[in-house]
Prior knowledge:
mainly alpha
Amino acid sequence: ALPMFTAMILGLSLTSLNVRSDLPVLIAGLAIALFIEPLIVSNLLGMIDVDEHTRLITVLFAAMPATPLSVAFAHQFGGDVALASKLSTATLIASAVSLPLITLIH
C-alpha cells in the first residue's frame, strides 16, 4: 500500500511542474546526490582496505537517485512536496547518465 500511496503523491505533485523557479536547488541537489556523495564515499573507502568490487558497489549505492518515499515524508511532515517531487524525478532521470559514468570512471 505504501508504494502505491507514494506513487500517487508523486504523480499528483508533478502536475504543475515548473522547473525554472527551482533550477538552482535542483542543480545543487543533483550535484550533491549524484556526484559529491559518491565522491565522499569513495574517498572514505580509500582510507580503509576494501576490495574493488565492494568499493564499486558501495559507491554505486551512494550514487542512487533520491527515493520517491521522500515525497511521502514531505507530505506527511509538512515539507515542500513539489520540490521533493522535482528532486526525486530529476535525480532519477539524471542517474541514467551518472550511474554508468561512475561505473566507467571507477
